[in-house]
Amino acid sequence: MWEVDCSQAPREKLREQGFWTCEGAVSEETASEVRQEILAAHAAGLLTQSGNVLAVRLHDGGRGGVTREKPNVFEADLVLAGAASCPKVLQQSPVLAALLAQEGMLRKTLNESWPWLVLDRLEQAKVQVNSGNGGAFPCHFDLPSAAAKGARRVLTALLYLNSDWREGDGGEVEILPFPFPDVPVAPCDRRLVLFSSCTTLHRVRPYTGACGRVCINLWFEGEVSVPFPAPLPPCERYDAQACKIVRILRQQPAELRAFCKVWYANTMAESLRDAFEPSEELDAALALHFEEMRAVESRIAPTTLEVLRECLPFKETPLVLRESETADLSGLFDGM
Ligand SMILES: O=C(O)CCC(=O)C(=O)O
Ligand SMILES: [Fe+2]
User: How many angstroms does the Cα of residue 324 sit away from the middle of ligand 2?
Assistant: First the structure.
């Protein structure tokens, strides 16, 4: 059922920029049937409104969380911690159930293209319907929940099922692949988007289309000890000092995530306002975001930010050149 062709786009992009996209990941027929099944499950009330925990400063000065719903976004987890969940959705969705049952086929294809991922388990799978009217996701990483002890989640895969998506409908998943330029990816039918669960910041822009925006999210476990995206590819293409800073950040994913709060401070704030209704809790979350952003910023040497502001975002080198370049230099990745 999966028809992912990994030769469509340069493979090294996943390792270098932390994301990769391809078209036609399933047949038109499968896409249409699965979309209908997910919309039918939603119509039957089997999906629940999606929520996010907003980090806020509590009255006692501590850091706490309040859950806020994301208007117009509905979801159901079909696999949780590697086990089937929400059987009602699967019972009435035979094509979706078959597609999920064949996730091993997708994993095999991905492992053949990127052997260093060593994907060995589908940890979580979710279906989502965004009913429009501006439904959005704030900037986030797809870190496993704190409750999932020992989770080895490394890769996020998003499959879009929206044959009627049109330019202007919004709902693009915007990838923020520091230090590269932001990339809005339209949720086009049969498009598969892959990225690093723990280090690729992303959001969903407000969706205003007339038909539901449907997607399937898959989270895979794999080899957590291989830095992904890689500390950096051969560096002649980019400024050496900026490369060094990026390399250091990429070797410490928690620091990279903290750094993103500074680098993407305003985009993150805007994405929170896009995704949630105005409320005191949202204001508190925005206040904490900027407080934490300033705390991280105070730990960064001003010259570091100056260098990065001068050199970033790194420009993409034309793909033809990049492919032959990396073929020649592929040995440099060994043992990283
Ligand atoms: O709907 C999308 O395109 C992505 C959703 C997402 O980022 C998530 O569920 O974590
Ligand atoms: Fe996400």
Answer: 32
**Ligand nearest to the Cα of 136, by number:** 1
Contact by Cβ (8 Å): 213, 134: no
Q: Which residues line ligand 1 (CB under 6 A)?
A: 128, 137, 142, 158, 173, 187, 202, 204, 215, 217
Q: What is the 3-state secondary structure (H, E, C) of 26-87?
A: ECHHHHHHHHHHHHHHHHCCCCEEEEEEEEEECCCCCEEEEEEEEEEEEEEEEEECCEECCH
Instruction: Say if domain 11-327 classifies as CATH 2.60.120.620.
Output: yes
Q: Which atom of ligand 1 is nearest to the CA of 130?
A: 1
Structure tokens at 159: 């499959």
Q: pLDDT, tens digit, for every residue of 111-158?
A: 999 999 999 999 999 999 999 999 999 999 999 887 777 789 999 999
The H or E element that residue 278 is part of is none
Measured CA to CA, the distance from residue 309 to residue 212 in angstroms comes to: 39
Q: At 274, give phi and psi (nearest 5°).
A: -70, -35
Distance CA 275, CA 131 (A): 13
CA-to-CA distance for 129 and 63, rounded, in angstroms? 31
d(CA 111, CA 193): 15
What is the residue whose two structure tokens read 């407000």?
Answer: 206
Question: Distance between CA 329 and CA 230 in Å, rounded?
Answer: 14
Give the ligand at the shortest distance from the Cα of 196: 2
This complex has an ipTM of 0.99
Q: In the beta sheet, which residues pair with residue 54?
A: 66
Q: Which ligand 1 atom minimizes the distance to the CA of 75?
A: 9
| Residues contacting 148, CB < 8 A, separation 6+ | 81, 123
